[in-house]
Amino acid sequence: MGHTTDIHVDWGDTDAGGLIYFPRFFHFAVVGLNDYFAPAMDGHLMESLRRDGFVLPAVDASGSFESPLRAGERAVVETEVTDLGEASLTVTFEVFRTGSDGSTDERAATLSVTFVLVDGDFEATPLPESVRECVVERGDGAAAGGA
What we know:
The protein is an alpha+beta fold and 147 residues long. Helix content is 24%, strand content 33%.
């Protein structure tokens, strides 16, 4: 279920104290989202949609920050579509610190973001079939419920 994306925490992701600046977790979420849909969208979800005249803005977002990450650390983002609507999708992202042995030893954050596909007039429009098929192929909870 879902998909994992490896992340390297860089100095630009941190504050003056060397700890991750919390909005960067949402950047990692977008990286995870694009990686999740890469096979279905020939590489990059947001760019593919933009080329077709659409955008996928976030309309609701929440996060729970549980443990800081530091510059130089590695993390993994676990991405899962938890709700699939006609024009929207809600995605949960869990960010884990990656241990030296590759294990995901500590949760750093849990995020939930709802996106809505809109056209050039900013009107909601149905998600592409390729997006739906990707969710079904990954076997996420949204696919099982027939949302």
